[in-house]
Specification:
Blueprint: H1 2-21, E1 29-39, E2 45-47, E3 53-60, E4 63-70, E5 73-85, E6 88-96, E7 106-113, E8 116-123, E9 126-135
Antiparallel strand pairs: 1-2, 1-3, 1-9, 3-4, 4-5, 5-6, 6-7, 7-8, 8-9
Length: about 140
């Protein structure tokens, strides 16, 4: 009986360790937009700097909210839910200042290196958006 309890405890400990080892690093918190680009409706690449875009995104408990300004004036905003899985970040706006596309969900491939979060949205083989965010308060 005691061997069975020890084995059960060991299996539980290993399962718990594996679950935590596979968790994505936390994206929760406040983020400041550093740079980006997108493909406009004419197929041209537009650099965020040329539009003087600045933004803040907040993530907490599966919810997000963001605001973006262009040259200090409101440009876009939205809020809703998000999920993270296997290098993908998917946000589903529930409210937005722009018309929603793709059924209302936006899927990005992402990397997180230290306090730098890079998002890329693809349409087939073509990257249509790229954003680089820095965790707020980090040097």
């Amino acid at each position: 009986m005691s061997l069975r309890i020890c084995l059960s405890g060991a299996v539980l400990a290993v399962a718990t360790w594996c679950a935590h080892a596979n968790e994505a690093p936390s994206l929760q918190g406040a983020w400041q937009l550093q740079s980006g680009e997108f493909i406009n409706k004419d197929g041209a690449t537009v650099d965020y700097a040329s539009q003087k875009l600045a933004g803040t995104k907040l993530l907490a408990d599966g919810r997000f909210a963001f605001t973006t300004t262009s040259d200090g004036k409101f440009w876009a905003g939205g809020s809703g839910t998000y999920r993270v899985e296997e290098g993908r970040y998917v946000e589903t706006p529930l409210m937005a200042s722009y018309p929603l596309e793709n059924g209302g969900s936006y899927e990005f491939r992402y990397t997180l290196q230290g306090d730098t979060w890079t998002l890329e949205r693809w349409d087939g083989e073509r990257r249509v958006e790229r954003e680089v965010w820095k965790r707020a308060g980090s040097p």
